[in-house]
Specification:
Blueprint lengths: L2 E5 L4 H13 L4 E4 L5 H10 L7 E4 L5 E3 L1 H11 L11 H29 L8 H21 L12 H16 L7 H12 L1 H10 L9
Parallel strand pairs: 1-2
Antiparallel strand pairs: 1-3, 3-4
Helix pairs in contact: 1-3, 1-6, 1-8, 4-5, 4-6
């Protein structure tokens, strides 16, 4: 089986998948996609008409898997080394999935709303939408601070939820700082940042980080 990952080193949802791949030790081919490059964009569009990454293609079966959470769950099903992403216990796995959705929906999504607004042309900004996004982040930080109880998001085991947490919290912290009042959340982000898989992702992203408008 040959896995091809279509991605960009700056893209936050790609970080989520890369952390999972590096933690699992799974070999894959990299297909860096510059959406401004007509040929690279067309190749991605032929596989997924929404032209979104990350996208994983299994060249043996031709199976194409989009969306970061589904992609990581696909790996957990197909690769023994990735089974740590979700616990075998169904109730525990459901809790991990809920945390994954928490980071994507209440941290990642509002962060992207704020960043997207920064990229809009003059006269097209959405201050009301940005205000709502910032309010969501404020609530998310407070909620996470109350819920964190252990080394990782779901307790003592690194999981799918932590793959989702790092890119969401890293970028959100750049557009709306996690305050010193959120001691546990700051410490959690520091633990994530020290993880070798995360450090590898950040090293690869370094040449592109100056492009982030946050």
């Amino acid at each position: 089986m040959t896995l091809q990952l279509f991605y960009h080193p700056l893209a936050s949802y790609c970080w989520k998948v890369l952390v999972g791949l590096y933690e699992s030790g799974i070999e894959f081919e990299r297909h860096l996609v510059d959406l401004g490059n007509r040929e690279q964009r067309a190749e991605l569009e032929a596989l997924w008409p929404f032209v979104k990454f990350p996208l994983l293609r299994d060249t043996t079966t031709g199976e194409v898997t989009p969306e970061s959470t589904i992609l990581l769950e696909w790996l957990a099903l197909r690769h023994p080394s990735a089974r740590w992403l979700l616990a075998a216990d169904a109730a525990r796995a459901l809790r991990t999935r809920a945390l994954d959705r928490f980071f994507d929906t209440y941290v990642h999504e509002p962060m992207q709303k704020i960043v997207g607004d920064k990229l809009r042309a003059a006269g097209q900004h959405d201050p009301t939408g940005v205000e709502a996004a910032r309010a969501t982040l404020t609530t998310a930080y407070a909620t996470l601070e109350r819920r964190l109880d252990g080394e990782w998001a779901d307790g003592e085991a690194f999981s799918l939820a932590d793959c989702a947490a790092y890119p969401a919290l890293y970028y959100a912290n750049r557009v709306q700082s996690i305050s010193d009042a959120h001691v546990k959340t700051q410490a959690y982000l520091a633990r994530l940042r020290a993880r070798p898989s995360v450090q590898r992702v950040m090293k690869e992203a370094e040449p592109y980080l100056h492009l982030f408008p946050g």
